[in-house]
Amino acid sequence: MPTIPRKLPNASLEDWNKNKPTKHVAREHMERVIRCAPAAWQSAVRERLNTEAPPILARNLSDREWLQQPPEWAQAWDLMQAVADYEDEFGQASLWNLDDYEICAMAKKLAGEADELDALAIGQGATLEARVDSIRLLVRCVGVAEDKPITGEPAIKRAQDAAWWRRRLRVHVARVVEAGAVGLGLVHARRGGYVSSEGLGRRQAQLRRNAEALQRTLYRNEAGQVYSLHELAALGNSNPVVRGGELMTRIRGAEEYADARAHVGLFLTLTLPSRFHPVKLGSGGRPFQNKKYQGATPRDGQLWLRDKWAKTRAALAREGVRMYGLRVAEPHHDATPHWHALVWAEDEASAQAIERWVRHYWLSDDGTERGAVENRVNVKRMVKGGAAGYVAKYIAKSVGNVALAEHMDVVNGQQIQLDLGPTDPANVKETEPGHKRVDAWAATWGIRQFQTIGMPSVTVWRELRRVTPDQLELFSQEGDRAAVRAFHACHRRGEIRADWRLFMEAMGGHALPRKCWHLRTAHRTPEPGTVNKYGEEVKVGRIVGLQAQRGRMRGHWLVSRRIAWAPVVGESQHAAQVGNEGDAAGQAQGDGTATARAALAAPWTGFNNCTARLTGELSRAIFGRGDHEKEDWCTPEVVAQFRAMRSQRFAEALQC
């Protein structure tokens, strides 16, 4: 690629005549960068360069106009400098404008180069430090962000893995190219907002690839049923309906918890200084470039917001102010992030402290610019029963209207008033896929859209839904009522929905340190020497249940009910279409369309292998009723006698 000089030739007259700027050379440079730019950028790039140096491109000038223009070499020089400035700012985006096939090919090539580099270093007897240095040099020459420090043998194995390169390159390409579109002013309300059309297409292509991969991957459970991962994923939080419903359940419960205690609710809208906004809207919604914009990306803006929020929380903690709630990150039309925070304070003094410190930190940076005091921080006092209504539209904007259709219900006797459009999922046709653009924006920039503040872990809530009821019998007998209440709060019983308020109360309240909640997740202890695919030691095993942290049952586990799954190899995808009868081989004869699966008979084990208990249901179904069944001896009198005998043996064991 030809280099544009940054200094005029002035060594001699001969040097000047040979290398002086000319209109022909300047236009060649301009056309070159326009050809290299993504197709969607080219008109914007041409307009930008023509605006910065228009006279040299003008034609049919009158003699008077021509005489008033600067010399041709000066105009050519100005245009060349404008082109060079563009390349400095957006050249990387043009170079990294790769499609996914090119990314995969590049990842495979880089993994091979890393393998060759390491083999060469080993052949030369290099130390581990020297081998790591060669890999570090390769990664930094490519320019991708380092997700982990490049140290030790695991860093070498990562660089030799094409899958690792694919992940890093996809993130890098998406952010660099999208940053170019944002900087050029191609992301604004007139073009759909939030994300460029190419960024949206990139995200949609990623979702299609993921869906196809999930559809092709089959797993069989311990009951013999075969499912595709796509079907299993639809049952979890990746499903917008499940995700939105859970968010609304949590915010409704938090509001009822706050109202029962007369806590003060605040709704905060927190925005960024003007220099983070690339595009402004004029009269009539006309977009125009913001002169204060300094090239910051939405990721930079999110990091600024996080930094100020961390300082605010630290200042409040020093004053003993406890708050809880939910914050939502969403984009302005030009992709600049801003936050909505729904928080409750214990009293009016605490609420005023929250507002004071938020304003202090948000105005500590460019706080004197015009409109900062009025617009950068907006604080509203919430009325009773209005929190869900405040935040519902922001959740709908991020996950879709259909996700909340079943949750616009009554909170403390007051109906949530919010128009979400059609509420029948079968008849909804999105004409404005705004939530898809928001999803693409969040995925591109790695922005966490929803985060709770000072509330119990939702992971504990989800794990309690996997715990079998009979495990709570021992907790109930030992007087641990909190765990029992938390368990019942997580489950729907008939028309009674799951209740986050009761869950918060059972867990200990609000704004507690992690070690002070009543329950926490329990992890399996990995075997000594267990490592991941890159050779790193696995220090924390997978979640297997919950552990009580307080009360008489402190240290005792509630084991999660999990089904054992194994990948299906060498079978048709139709095996996922399970009927009501037959084994897996017979179930494989499907028509390729998803069908409803009838629930199988209750398994002979209600627990995983750690706590297997025989119930006798399988043998009874096969051999019929025996001579001595559970109902013959499990009467109230026999149970009371058994418990008394167990207590006596326990007392004798203590004496020993």
Can you give a write-up of this model?
The chain has 656 residues and is α+β, with helices and mostly antiparallel strands. Among the domains are: 13-95, no CATH class; 100-183; 240-453, no CATH class. Helix content is 47%, strand content 10%. It has 25 helices and 15 strands. The chain has helices spanning 13-19, 23-36, 42-52, 63-68, 72-95, 100-123, 128-142, 152-159, 162-183, 197-216, 229-233, 240-260, 298-318, 348-362, 372-375, 387-399, 434-445, 458-464, 472-477, 481-489, 500-507, 584-587, 617-623, 630-633, 636-655; strands at 218-221, 226-228, 264-270, 279-281, 287-289, 323-331, 337-345, 377-381, 410-411, 414-415, 450-453, 519-523, 543-548, 557-559, 565-567. The strands form 5 sheets. The protein has a 5-stranded antiparallel sheet, with helices on both faces. The chain has a 3-stranded antiparallel sheet with strand order 2-1-15. Strand 6 (323-331) and strand 7 form a beta hairpin. Helix 6 (100-123) packs antiparallel against helix 7 (128-142) and helix 13 packs across helix 14. The longest helix is centred in the N-terminal third of the chain and has 24 residues, at 72-95.
